[in-house]
Write a structure and sequence with these properties.
By secondary structure, this protein is mainly alpha-helical. The protein has one domain (2-148). Helix content is 63%, strand content 0%.
């Protein structure tokens, strides 16, 4: 993607030429990349959130928060994205929709399909998070794969050192 963007800039400013399909290409690659890796970012807990309460919370509290968040917010959101984007994507496939720009790339329908892929990947990761939360709440955190385990409790246990 960086190479394509660099090539577009060099062509435009050094050689005074430009290809619309190349401009479409790096914009489309950017959109495809972000929608395709959203589930992975959720797995790694890389999405932006306010962690004033979540990070220092106990493991059990984080598991409850995630479980509620998945079922109340995440899964309904992905269902809405899926339901509302499906006709949009089907229509694009029916027309074999291409770029609206003259000389642009064909195959916009493939890019629009990434909306459905986004919803499916986020939902799959949400289900995995719910299973993780259920395992942790059920006392079976040992069954959670290492890549999906919660970080250790950030709350330090009360110590009795120095107490009289």
């Amino acid at each position: 993607m960086v190479v394509v963007c660099f090539t577009v800039v060099v062509q435009r400013y050094l050689f005074a030429t430009s290809y619309v399909w190349m401009q479409d290409l790096y914009i489309w690659l950017n959109g495809a990349m972000f929608t395709a890796v959203a589930g992975f970012a959720l797995l790694r807990d890389d999405h932006v959130r306010v962690d004033i309460f979540y990070r220092p919370a106990k493991l059990r509290t984080r598991a409850i928060t995630d479980l509620i968040g998945v079922f109340v917010f995440l899964l309904p959101f992905t269902w809405i994205v899926y339901i509302y984007s499906m006709p949009f994507v089907q229509r694009a496939w029916g027309y074999h929709e291409g770029s609206a720009n003259v000389g642009g790339m064909p195959g916009l329908y493939i890019l629009k399909t990434f909306i459905i892929v986004f919803a499916a990947l986020i939902a799959a990761q949400g289900i995995a998070m719910a299973i993780r939360s259920i395992l942790v709440l059920g006392g079976r955190a040992d069954l959670v794969p290492a890549a999906m385990q919660y970080s250790p409790d950030a709350i330090k246990p009360a110590t009795t050192e120095g107490a009289a």
